[in-house]
Amino acid sequence: MTGLERIVEKIAAENKAATDAMIAETTEQANRMIATAREDASNKAQKIVDNAKAEADRIVAVAKSQAESLSRKRYLEVRGAVVNDILSAAYEKIEAFDDESYFALLLQLCVKNCEKGEGVLFFNARDLARMPRDFEETINAQIYETGAVQVSKTPMDIENGFVLVYGDIEINCTLRAVFDERMDALKDLLHPLLFA
């Protein structure tokens, strides 16, 4: 081998060593870049998964809250409907009382609502026709210390019950008015019995 060949061989060997070192360094840099990219991608993917889980949890919580609210609303509506049905049935039962029970109830209402002085009781035509003959006397016997009432022979256009008049003051004692006036108190009594 000649000197020139040795020089060329030495240069080739040095070039190969330099090239191998460059390739190794480039490969190492590429591997580091790939590892960094993989780590970034993994972090971003985990962040996306975490955000998606958080959003799904939020959506489930909102849906659960709305469902509970709707359920409570429906429950209250059903409770109200049950109470209203019971009160309607009670009203209808009172309307269907036989004459004796009906006028006993009206007697109690009249005694409770009578004021001092002279009053006039107005009934509808049906009640005037079926009223016990001694109804006026029975009332006056119970309220004689504070006043008296007279049953008007002129019928009033009311469904049931009576209207008690003292001059310009009218006390509406129709069953509907009594029920409506005491509706909240009746509901308060029924709720603990029905929904304990």
Question: Can you describe this structure?
Answer:
The chain folds into 2 domains: 1-96; 98-194, ATP synthase, E subunit, C-terminal (hypothetical protein PF0899 fold, 2-Layer Sandwich), CATH 3.30.2320.30. It has a 4-stranded mixed sheet. 72% of the residues lie in helices and 11% in strands. Helix 2 runs parallel beside helix 4. The longest helix is centred in the N-terminal third of the chain and has 93 residues, at 3-95. It is rod-shaped, with a radius of gyration of 48 Å. The termini are far apart. It has helices at 3-95, 99-113, 125-130, 135-143, 175-181, 183-194, and strands at 117-122, 147-151, 162-166, 169-173. It is of the alpha+beta class and 196 residues long.
